[in-house]
Amino acid sequence: MTNATILGGIAGPDLSAAERDFFRAADPWGFILFGRNIDTPERLRRLTSDLRDAVGRDAPVLIDQEGGRVQRMRAPHWTDWPAPLDQAANGDRAIWLHHHLMARELREMGIDSDCAPVLDIAREDTHPFLRNRCLGTDAQSVIRLGRIAADAMLAAGVLPVIKHMPGHGRARVDSHKNLPVVDATLDELDQTDFAPFRALSDLPMAMTAHIRFTAVDEAPTTASAPMIAMIRKGIGFEGLLMSDDIGMEALSGTPAERAAATIAAGCDLVLSCNETLAQMESIVAAAGAASADTLRRGARALALRQPADVLETADMRAELRALGGLAA
């Protein structure tokens, strides 16, 4: 029985004895890596292996690898990818190649899930922390390119995590620092922001937005039972739903209080990225053991992990370079 918590909090590129013992006891559903955990390919492969050994199973290892500003693995060992909105200007095929090749680099390191693609719609007033991470400026473009990106990642053996459900594009402040508030009507949101998530609701995993939608609730989506119910029933998402990082300042309370609110609202997993071991112990206690529904959704997602296809990556890289989507 695993805990309803997905834990990062790894201090560096090697798993310490204290971290190993904690994970062995806590048995998180999976792990997430950050730039501080990335060194050489050999060291990264050892880390992903050590994490799985700590829990005694083939637990998923996640990362945020989008391109542009948000990519944890970079040159000289891995590719520096353009931002998704910039890549979208090179066409649909460039988006497929971008996400497929990027995912293959992850899978070779033992990373089998990527917190991408971003299905938020880029607007003129979207905060700069998010805008060029989006795939397009209208719902239909995001739906088309989001599906292409997700299919490309799945073909490389990497599970996509669509974000930030049910839509972060209207945020004019950075949710890492403040709580964005959106005053649009439900009808307006339903036709725009929510549309990409509804169209791709069959995908296995999603991440919530730390945004307050005044048309539904006073609480941010991650901690709002009415918003999570709307995601399940109105958008139709039946997959594994994780919070965005609960350490972000859009949320209030202690780490344990944030974790408890996340689970009480109906999220399956708490994403804890930067907390200390002591704080993570309190998060595990507050989140509790995974529900039967969470375990079922998790198993369904993990069943989609497949070996990467056998296409020739050198040819694909050359093709992407010719499209203008990869530096020489």
Please describe what this structure looks like.
Helix 4 runs antiparallel to helix 12 (313-322). The strands form 3 sheets. An 8-stranded parallel beta barrel has the order 1-2-3-6-7-9-11-12, surrounded by 7 helices. A two-stranded antiparallel ribbon has the order 4-5. The chain is of the alpha/beta class and 328 residues long. 39% of the residues lie in helices and 14% in strands. It is built from 12 helices and 12 strands.
Main sheet: which strands, in order across? 1-2-3-6-7-9-11-12
The main β sheet shows up as: 8 strands, parallel, barrel
Poorly predicted ranges = none
The level of helicity is 25-40%
DSSP summary: helix tally: 12
Strand content: 5-15%
CA radius of gyration is 19 Å
Instruction: Output mean pLDDT.
Output: 94
Terminal Cα span: 48 Å
Number of strands: 12
The topology string of helices and strands comes to EHEHEEEHHEHEEHHEEHEHEHHH
SS-derived structural category: alpha/beta
Coarse morphology: globular
Please specify the SSE layout and strand pairing.
Elements: E1 3-7, H1 17-26, E2 28-33, H2 41-55, E3 61-63, E4 65-67, E5 70-71, H3 84-88, H4 92-108, E6 113-114, H5 139-155, E7 159-165, E8 181-182, H6 186-191, H7 195-199, E9 205-208, E10 212-213, H8 225-234, E11 240-245, H9 255-265, E12 269-272, H10 277-287, H11 292-302, H12 313-322
Helix pairs in contact: 1-2, 4-5, 4-12, 9-10
Key attributes of the depicted protein:
328 residues, two-stranded antiparallel sheet, 12 strands, globular
